[in-house]
Amino acid sequence: MNPLSELPSGRVSVLIADADLMSAHLLAGELARGKQDISVVCVSSDSAEAIRELEKYQPDIALLNTHLQDGKMTGYRVLKSLPMACPKTAAIMMIPVADRELVVDAFRGGARGIICRVNALKLLSKCIRTVHGGQIWANNQELLYLLDFLAQLKPLRVVKSGGGMRLLTPREAEVVHLLAEGMSTREISHKVGVTEHTIRNYLSNIYDKLGVSSRVELALYAITREEMPTS
Questions:
Q1: CB neighbours (10 Å) of residue 108?
Q2: Which of 37, 44, 149, 176 has CA 20 to 30 A from 22's CA?
Q3: d(CA 133, CA 135)
Q4: Over pLDDT 70: what percentage of the chain?
Q5: Which residues contact 140 (CB under 8 A, 6 or more apart)?
Q6: pTM for the structure as a whole
């Protein structure tokens, strides 16, 4: 029997993994005092426990601190285990500060949202609802870090055989590939040999097919599904 089967319909189930159990329970209490549409189903303190509980509860959202009791940065170990442990769970990383490497590593690891520990607690429930709704949660500085990283990447090979990428035409997939390399609309149009208006039409179709709403979300979609060259 699914441990979440008794949750009221419409509730967003959340697992919190944090080295500081007192802080984790305070977060859980704060979420419970909100609009009562978020239920914290488990609080974990180390990576092994968090992975076990994720497999057991299959929550909608995994709220992961970067540091857990079994070591610094072990929250990223839990993040990388999500596709196998609970593929339908979306991850939000809690980071101490908006550090470039922490932000980029979180999104490369598959996180769909970033929230700093110094942010107001009232933002946390909004972040959870946004990510649960299929959107990305990040502030402008964090997005700039990610876009800068994308611009510096060597050419990516976007995985075309999995998920929504199969819905794209070869030309649309090429546009996604070039956008993930950090190219602007003008640069893509020159590369492909069509007008900027045509590229914008391609992007509009891609947004509809993949369920994203902006270039940033599309870039995140590509980078979290990339297949980096082995050389």
A1: 18
A2: 37
A3: 6
A4: 83
A5: none
A6: 0.67
Query: What is the arithmetic mean of pLDDT over 14-18?
Result: 96
- Residue range 87-112, pLDDT digits in tens: 899 999 999 888 888 898 898 888 99
Q: Is the dihedral of CA 123, 13, 40, 107 positive or negative?
A: negative
How many Å apart are CA 118 and CA 101, to the nearest integer?
A: 18
Cα dihedral 197, 202, 203, 204, rounded to 10, equals 90
Domains of the chain, each with CATH number or no CATH: 12-147 (3.40.50.2300), 153-227 (1.10.10.10)
| Encoded tokens for 189 | 């149009």
Spatial contact of 178 and 191, defined as CB atoms under 8 Å apart: yes
Length of the chain: 231
Per DSSP, the residues of 2-42 read -TTTTSPTTPEEEEEE-S-HHHHHHHHHHHHTSSS-EEEEE
Of the listed ranges 26-35, 48-57, 147-156, the least confidently predicted one is 147-156
Helices (H), 9-139: 21-32, 47-57, 75-85, 100-108, 121-132
